[in-house]
Amino acid sequence: MESFGVKVEEETMLKAVFLPFISKSHLIFVVDIARLFAMHNVDVTIITTPANAAIFQTSIDHDSSRGRSIRTHIVKFPQVPGLPQGMESFNADTPKDIISKIYQGLAILQEQFTQLFRDMKPDFIVTDMFYPWSVDVADELGIPRLICIGGSYFAHSAMNSIEQFEPHAKVKSNSVSFLLPGLPHNVEMTRLQLPDWLRAPNGYTYLMKMIKDSEKKSYGSLFDSYYEIEGTYEDYYKIAMGSKSWSVGPVSLWMNKDDSDKAGRGHGKEEDEEEGVLKWLDSKKYDSVLYVSFGSMNKFPTPQLVEIAHALEDSGHDFIWVVRKIEDAEDGDDGFLSEFEKRMKERNKGYLIWGWAPQLLILEHGAVGAVVTHCGWNTIMESVNAGLPLATWPLFAEQFFNERLLVDVLKIGVAVGAKEWRNWNEFGDDVVKREDIGKAIGLLMGGGEECLEMRKRVKALSGAAKKAIEVGGSSYTKLKELIEELKSFKLEKINKKLVSVT
């Protein structure tokens, strides 16, 4: 009986293979989802390349040491002519001429990924949205494919509205605002704030159509969200897409509960930086520090950095600023930023981090009172988890949509004043002025009535986030129900095989 029991347990334990994308925000999201499934007794294998594995392997080792069935399967990145060894992912430092070479390597890997899916014989696969081809592999293997959709339900609902109704085609000017039809809230945008692929068809438009088609053919989609923050748009999205979807977030809050997890998320090697910034924060008053960061994919030219520096200094508030600058000999004056950093250090007003920052640990520190953000969804979720209001400065991707969610729908953010969507790491002449940045900072940190109302709302969302992942919470219940569905799918498949044999 014992051996029979073991066999039944092996047959009912789900086996999953995860394939994350190779930009840090997407990678961290899919890996955290993988860890979440492993926490709930699913056997998990993550397929990735060596340099990408280095970003998250510390977290996987922690989980494995806790007795969870999770591992990384490394696939060597192809040798593409002109591609430096170890350059296997996209971030703010990726040179433009290298991007196409990384995509070339990824295209070569597709057949290898496909064969691994066949060889590993998983019960289901979970892949990033940027692998639309994987839905056909799942179909071939007769298993479910879950698609991880980056960003918010709101952003994807808004994009669907624009694709369906084309309101931007009905206005005469790029700067005239229009209403997004069909959404549960009145939301207005301008043509300039839309991604270029929505304004006029291009290669990316075709890719997004492929992604959408693959989503409709998938078993369902997974979002790093929770019902209490944007449930209205989760419901709207499921009806608009006509497919299943589960909000299983906040995944960061769920998966990174101790300091070793928080420190290791997305890097985990800058221990000196971590110790230094936390020590500095310990010397500051509660809610007194502004955290300024624009994510792992963004850099600014020097003229914009100068405006940010002046706004921070003029605000009079203490701040941490994660600085990434475009290396351009023509645009700038490194001396200005060096002098600024020296001056802020002497006055103990500012802490500049040049590169990676232990973001989770910073955001959860009691001294941090608000965030200036590019409106990347990972940072939004982490900031809301920590109960922090936001100054919104969207740059590219779906970030202008996320700004509208924060400012107009949730009312936990104030816009800095960015007017135009742009391609990743591309800048025109448009510079957000120090006065506009300063005005947003003043509203966030000033303690006025609007500020206090924002803080109250975001604290309530923070509390709801914590409840969502507890037993009986919205995200906890959805994940458990999904896993039970996948088990039923597996058992049904086993039973069909048994019937065909007999």
From TrEMBL:
Query: Which GO molecular function annotation, any one, does this entry have?
Result: UDP-glycosyltransferase activity
Q: EC number(s) in its UniProt entry?
A: 2.4.1.-
The yes or no answer to whether the keyword Signal is present is no
Q: Which SUPFAM superfamilies match?
A: UDP-Glycosyltransferase/glycogen phosphorylase (SSF53756)
Q: Which Pfam families match?
A: UDPGT
* Domain of life according to the entry: Eukaryota
Q: Which residues form a coiled coil?
A: none
The alphabetical list of record keywords is: Glycosyltransferase, Transferase
Q: Does the keyword Glycoprotein apply?
A: no
Give the enzyme's main class according to its UniProt record, as a single word: transferase
PANTHER family attached to this UniProt entry = GLYCOSYLTRANSFERASE, SOLANIDINE UDP-GLUCOSE GLUCOSYLTRANSFERASE 1
**Name this polypeptide is given:** Glycosyltransferase
